[in-house]
Amino acid sequence: MSVNINIEGLIGKAKPFLSNSYAPYSNIHVAAAVLTDKGSIYTGVNVENASYGLTICAERSAISAMVAAGERKPVAVAVVTDMDNPIPPCGACRQVIAEFNPKALIIMHSVKSGKTIVKNLEELFPQPFILEK
Ligand code: THU
């Protein structure tokens, strides 16, 4: 049985976390919600650092929460931002999501414009680096 993906519902799960985003340097706030094959939802926000390169994106925060909870398969990832337009996951996040599901649905939403863009990770990241498990 495959899990039903509720696009608006998943965006709604990420939204309340946007205000928890720690982004004093870029002032770009991002929250992510990961829906798994079991129907669970894990959230994350971007966490910046005075040593800029240590910043962790919202998507990787949410994927880490999923793994910590013992789950391994994201079917959809909602990325919500306060930027003017929806933003796609950065290259590092694409690689990290692809580790667990190269076909995950990526839902990008801007709370400012209300715009939503939906793409498959395969389209955003057609050649992930994946080792045989
Ligand atoms: N950021 C994310 O959290 N996710 C993305 O997909 C792109 C960028 C964050 C990282 C940093 O805190 C800020 O946005 C600006 O790059």
TrEMBL record:
Record keywords, A-Z: Hydrolase, Metal-binding, Zinc
- Please give the name of this protein: cytidine deaminase
PROSITE patterns listed in its UniProt record: CYT_DCMP_DEAMINASES_1, CYT_DCMP_DEAMINASES_2
Q: Which family does it belong to?
A: Belongs to the cytidine and deoxycytidylate deaminase family.
Superkingdom of origin organism = Archaea
List the top taxonomic levels of the source: Archaea, Thermoproteota, Thermoprotei, Desulfurococcales, Desulfurococcaceae
Q: Which GO terms describe its cellular component?
A: cytosol
User: What PANTHER family does the database record attribute to this sequence?
Assistant: CYTIDINE DEAMINASE
So where's the catalytic machinery, residue-wise? E59
Outline the extent of the CMP/dCMP-type deaminase domain. 5-132
The catalysed reaction is:
cytidine + H2O + H(+) = uridine + NH4(+)
State where Zn(2+) binds. Answer: C57, C90, C93
- Give the protein's function: This enzyme scavenges exogenous and endogenous cytidine and 2'-deoxycytidine for UMP synthesis.
